[in-house]
Amino acid sequence: MVVKQNLPVGVIYLIIELILSFVIASIVKILEPNIPVFQILFYRYLLSLPLLTVYGFFKHGLKIFYVNNVRLLILRIVCGFLGLVMWFLAVATIDISLATVLFNTMSLFITILSVIIAREIVGLRRSIAVITGFLGVVFIISPINASFNFSGVIFALLGAVFSGMMFVFIRMLGKTNETIPTAIWYNSFGAIVSLFILFIGENYLKISNTSVEFRDLPWDYLLGLGLLASFQQFFLAESHRYADASALAPFHYLAIPIGIAFGVVLFNENITVKFVIGTVIIVASNYYILIREKRHLEN
Q1: Residue 31: which of 40, 23, 22 has the closest Cα?
Q2: How many domains does the chain have?
Q3: What is the spatial distance between Cα 41 and Cα 148, in angstroms, rounded to a whole number?
Q4: What's the gap between Cα 70 and its chain centre?
């Protein structure tokens, strides 16, 4: 089904999705000290399914599971799952504000991947922008000392890679597939894989902080997580149906002030001058890449 392009509607949906994503991230950060990340992931996926399924049956009937392009669906599911895993691990181990800035290096990685995978030719200006962006990352995280959580930084950067790829596949799927069936397949996959990882970790790898137990869990938080995730996925997919990914890309940077606000207000995170300067460098380089890419496509 072809949807008429409407950028204001797409932007509104995107902003709502960003706010919901940080509410979810805050819940993850609150729960993680007592509940393993993959257990949080399992309930996030599982508890988002009932609302999506009911709405899907109401809207699509027996076609609730119908998808035109299975290959694109699989790519979207895998990249989305890996991106969310990395994002949850990042916000659980480092400040939400820092994780947000690092997560918004997507354009840098997409540019690099376009050269490696698609054999695209990237000009000198975009190459300099990529290098500048990564210098901004180094500027923010330095100096690296014994107390520095390097794993959290890696999780956030890997999340940027997988999520950048996911956004491309969401846009491609949105042109020919309905939003809800795609979301149901994605969440079903995430629930099954998360449960499998928990089961393997507990029974075979003997990892102490993995468990599939249902007892003594904060069900109010977990149910809220599933409900919010249902709406978040709907608004994310709808935003990319109403507007091109290239048109929405600049508005994704609204995630940075929103993420910083959540970090400062809820978790008393400290925003330094060095952090602000590094953030400006990263955003400027990413935005320049987007502009050059847009001009390249128009020529």
Answers
A1: 40
A2: 1
A3: 25
A4: 21
Query: Two tokens at 62?
Result: 């027996």
Is 1 within the bounds of a domain?
A: no
Question: What is the domain extent for residue 17?
Answer: 7-298
pTM of the shown model: 0.83
**Calpha distance 7→213 (Å, rounded):** 45
Q: What are the DSSP calls for 101-130, one per residue?
A: HHHTTHHHHHHHHHHHTS-----HHHHHHH
Residue 211: inside a domain, yes or no? yes
Q: 287 — phi, psi (to 5°)? A: -65, -40
**Going residue by residue through the chain (299 aa), what tens digit of pLDDT does each one get?**
555 677 888 889 999 999 999 999 999 999 988 888 889 999 999 999 998 888 888 877 878 888 888 888 898 899 999 999 999 999 999 999 999 999 888 777 777 766 665 566 667 787 888 888 888 888 888 876 656 688 899 999 999 989 878 877 776 776 667 778 888 999 999 999 999 988 887 655 555 555 555 566 788 899 999 999 999 888 877 887 787 766 777 788 888 899 999 999 999 998 889 999 999 998 888 888 777 766 665 65
